[in-house]
Design brief:
By secondary structure, the protein is α/β, with parallel strands linked by helices. The protein has one domain. It contains twelve helices and nine strands. A seven-stranded mixed beta sheet has the order 1-9-8-2-5-3-4, with helices on both faces. It has a two-stranded antiparallel sheet with strand order 6-7. Strand 6 and strand 7 form a beta hairpin. The longest helix is centred in the N-terminal third of the chain and has 20 residues. It is globular. The two termini are 28 Å apart.
């Protein structure tokens, strides 16, 4: 990577560090402004978001999809700006801003291993902080290594700064993660990205076949993991964040085979998107991988 790219990353991180001292309401306004700029300039990502909404909500009028994408970029901009708050603010400040609801202590009380299902809403990193601030068990997760080493190092440091988490690159083998779970860590699992056809099945997502990893269902069955969904929501202005620890799926996958169980996960994510549509990660090419013989959707 060129020296100037790493230098630019350091400048961006320095700005994030400065901004994180500001009141959240001011950060939110800055984030919305950056989101509006990204909406205007990031044409490829804007087209991807519009295409995703066209596929998932074909009955919506085009004007509604366009308005939702504009709103989505506002939340996206906020999630980028407020990353500095999550990476550097003291725990006391974060606890004032992150409001948790539901069965926060389920993993602590449950005798066996636990998997948290955490879909890609804009507050995803807030959910990661909440699991470290509000319950005592160690957290283990998988992350996508960043191409810029400066950003990658900062992201790892930010997510690990409370000493309560372990993260493993998606390019590593699964054995370190399995060992962490067996040691008692809770698996913080992100189940809704398209990583290709390997170890995946084409499971409907809003009626469209989507390459969906079978690992959550396989691990729940093979390791006896109880599954608890977590949804993180960014609140307007300076109100903070809401993280809902939802009722656990102690019967998952039950009698379902791995494909039917994976469909259950997608159906749950669909229901949460319907509740909070603008904060889902629409700029990801969720339908990038297609079944053999099918035309590309982007």
């Amino acid at each position: 990577m060129a020296w100037w790219e790493q230098a630019a990353a350091r400048v961006v991180l320095a700005l994030l560090w400065l901004v994180h001292w500001l009141p959240l309401g001011v950060q939110a306004a800055l984030g919305r402004g950056i989101g509006a700029l990204l909406h205007a300039l990031a044409r490829r990502r804007r087209r991807i978001a519009l295409r995703n909404l066209e596929l998932c909500f074909p009955d919506w009028p085009a004007e509604r999809r366009t308005a939702l994408v504009r709103e989505h970029f506002g939340w996206l901009g906020r999630s980028l700006v407020e990353r500095g708050l999550l990476w550097w603010a003291p725990a006391e400040r974060l606890k004032k801003l992150i409001h948790v609801e539901g069965e926060v202590d389920f993993a602590e009380k449950h005798a066996g291993p636990v998997m948290w299902l955490v879909p890609h809403f804009m507050g995803l990193d807030v959910a990661g902080m909440a699991t470290q601030l509000y319950q005592p068990r160690q957290v283990a997760s998988i992350y996508q290594r960043q191409s810029n080493p400066v950003f990658d190092a900062r992201m790892r440091a930010g997510r690990l700064r409370f000493g309560r988490a372990e993260i493993f690159s998606r390019h590593e083998k699964a054995l370190p993660l399995v060992r962490a779970i067996k040691r008692g860590a809770v698996f913080f699992n992100l189940p809704d990205m398209d990583f290709g056809a390997k170890d995946a099945a084409f499971v409907p997502f809003f009626g469209v076949p989507a390459a969906t990893l079978l690992a959550p269902a396989r691990m729940a069955a093979g390791m006896g993991l109880a599954v608890q969904p977590i949804i993180a929501e960014m609140l307007p202005g300076g109100q903070g964040y809401r993280v809902r620890f939802l009722p656990p799926w102690v019967d998952f996958p039950g009698a379902d085979d791995e494909v039917a169980a994976t469909r259950r996960i997608n159906a749950f994510i669909e229901s949460e998107i319907t509740r909070l549509p603008a904060q889902y990660l629409w700029v990801h090419r969720r339908f990038k991988t297609r079944p053999a013989g099918e035309a590309k959707l982007y």
